[in-house]
Amino acid sequence: MDEIGLSGMAVREWLGQGVSLVALALCVAGFASRRDDRLFALLLVANLAFAAQFALFQSWVAASISALIVLRIALVRRYPGNGAVMAAMLAATLVVAALTWSGWRDVPALLAGLLGTYGMFMLRGIAMRALLAAAACCWIISNLLAGSIGGTLAETLILVTNLITVWRLRRAALRYGLTGGG
């Protein structure tokens, strides 16, 4: 599986790049939505692709946290705002990071997992998306450190799309006198 392909990249690295593009399409569609439930559903599937991508790049903390995010998204849809479930997910994130830790390069993925967990469980609308934007910045760094061109592009586009959606929600809230922005 590690045979060298074009430009000296191993086959698994090419596969990682391809899988990350699938995740890109799913995430952009999710963050472009104004509906939190659609965002969560698309992120669930996208994180399966991100977990596979990071595993192909042998970035084990990022792969483990991405896989755990699938469970987090399913739980947050069932138990939104539940502090006990959130605490269990934060603990699980710390445990999988400790079990797969290889060094300082794993810090951005860990921060992304922790920020995303708090944001998805405890926040909604603009506030949730703002914290997820911070998590996206951490994922950008994690993808750069793993060498994922597609993942870096995916997270950068996710960040931009998410910020545009925050702006749209804020504009709608101001226009229609809504509180909370979404």
Low-confidence stretches: none
Fraction of residues in helices? over 70%
Give the class from helix and strand content and strand pairing.
Answer: mainly alpha
Would you report the number of β strands?
0
Q: Regarding quaternary structure, how should these chains be classified?
A: single chain
Question: Which properties best describe this structure?
Answer:
single chain; 182 residues; mainly alpha; globular; 7 helices
Short description:
The protein has 182 residues and is mainly alpha-helical.
Task: Report what the structure shows.
With about 180 residues, the protein is mostly helical. The chain has one domain (about 5-175). The protein has seven helices and no strands. It has helices spanning about 10-30, 35-55, 60-80, 85-100, 105-120, 125-145, 150-175. The longest helix has 28 residues, at about 150-175. The chain starts with 10 loop residues before the first helix and ends in a 6-residue tail after the last helix. The mean pLDDT is about 90.
Please write out the topology.
Layout: H1 11-32, H2 36-56, H3 60-78, H4 83-100, H5 107-122, H6 125-146, H7 149-176
Helix pairs in contact: 1-2, 1-7, 2-3, 3-4, 3-5, 4-5, 5-6, 6-7
